[in-house]
């Protein structure tokens, strides 16, 4: 169980570290030791300075990268077709496939027939306002629509754990808010999956998350994990409440020192990833 909840643990990270490179002159200690438990059905947002190892951690959770030290356990159902799906910042959709086939492709890879996969994807196309674009190719779509395709694709495989790495970072401020609100509504109304969501935006983290995990400057460790004190279902109007701003300031106090460390490292080395080479 995760402290303060009665739900079973879905992700348990213990002392997870990642180093890149073996040469002492260029080796990078990118992450950790980092510990994190995520409960089933919990929406956890992770914030931390640039280069602190957030993406590295998410890639380790996704099984795309091995930890150099420590353990990571995912407690997925044995029957699960797709335990984990990931959404990246840069859309990562196939330009040569239509919207519909981009969305169905994940299921096709798992042996589901094209017809059934397209059928199962249709719901998410509709839910994300993409139904009229089913036969379009990604290069005819705006950034916001492309990111909707990525999200529809991730939801179509019905993952138990959804990993999102700054999915809205490339969008302008208004569009970003629209997509946040859509994701909030989808998650609260029909897809309460376990989510780990990385963002640089505290506002985004508070609107979406049950909990915000603040990481230190590289190598990222846990500074603090803070429960978001706003009841669900939440609505977008939450952003306008004074308590929202107060809480955002509270989180900023935790993060500020870490961002300053990062800035010092940038000034010292001139590298925008906090000195990693
Ligand atoms: N494949 C790699 N080889 C060498 N160094 C790497 C590699 N991947 C990441 N790093 C380094 O590890 C550190 C952590 O990178 P990571 O991308 O996880 O940070 P991040 O917290 O996601 O940063 P951002 O907020 O800018 O996305 C950085 O210093 C980065 O340069
Ligand atoms: Mg990153």
What does this structure look like?
The strands form two sheets. The chain has a six-stranded mixed sheet, sandwiched between helices. A three-stranded antiparallel sheet has the order 2-1-4, with helices on one face. It has seven helices and nine strands. Helix 3 packs across helix 4. With 277 residues, the chain is α/β, with parallel strands linked by helices. A hairpin with a 7-residue loop joins strand 1 (9-20) and strand 2 (28-39). It is globular and about 55 Å long. The mean pLDDT is 93. The longest helix is centred in the C-terminal third of the chain and has 28 residues, at 242-269. The N and C termini lie far apart (39 Å). Adenosine-5'-triphosphate binds at residues 20-21, 28, 30, 48, 50-56, 218, 273-274, 276.
Q: Could you say which small molecules are bound to this protein?
A: adenosine-5'-triphosphate, magnesium ion
Number of helices: 7
Q: How many beta-strand elements? A: 9
Fraction of residues in helices? 25-40%
- SSE run: EEEHEEHHHEHEHEEH
Profile the largest sheet: 6 strands, mixed
Radius of gyration: 19 Å
Order the strands across the largest sheet as they lie in space. Answer: 5-6-7-3-8-9
Structural class: alpha/beta
Q: Beta-sheet strand percentage? A: 15-25%
What shape does the CA trace take? globular
């Amino acid at each position: 169980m995760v402290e303060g909840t009665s739900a079973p643990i879905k992700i348990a990270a213990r002392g997870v570290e990642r180093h890149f490179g073996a040469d002492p002159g260029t080796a990078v200690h990118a992450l950790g030791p980092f510990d994190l438990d995520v409960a089933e059905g919990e929406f956890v947002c992770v914030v931390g300075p640039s280069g602190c190892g957030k993406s590295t951690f998410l890639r380790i959770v996704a099984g795309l990268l091995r930890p150099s030290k420590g353990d990571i356990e995912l407690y997925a159902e044995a029957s699960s077709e797709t335990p984990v799906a990931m959404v990246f910042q840069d859309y990562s959709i196939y330009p040569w496939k239509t919207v519909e086939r981009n969305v169905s492709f994940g299921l096709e890879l798992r042996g589901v027939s094209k017809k059934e996969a397209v059928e199962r994807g249709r719901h998410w196309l509709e839910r994300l306002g993409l139904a009229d674009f089913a036969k379009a190719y990604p290069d005819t779509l705006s950034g916001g629509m492309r990111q909707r395709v990525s999200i529809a694709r991730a939801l179509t495989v019905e993952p138990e754990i959804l990993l999102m790495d700054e999915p809205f970072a490339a969008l302008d401020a208004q569009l970003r808010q629209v997509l946040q609100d859509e994701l909030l509504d989808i998650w609260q109304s029909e897809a309460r999956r376990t989510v780990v969501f990385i963002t640089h935006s505290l506002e985004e983290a508070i609107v979406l998350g049950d909990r915000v995990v603040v990481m230190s400057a590289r190598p990222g460790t846990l500074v603090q994990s803070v429960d978001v004190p706003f009841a669900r279902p939440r609505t977008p109007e939450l952003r306008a409440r004074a308590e929202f701003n107060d809480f955002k300031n509270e989180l900023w106090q935790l993060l500020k020192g870490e961002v300053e460390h990062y800035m010092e490292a940038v000034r010292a080395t001139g590298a925008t990833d906090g000195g990693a080479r």
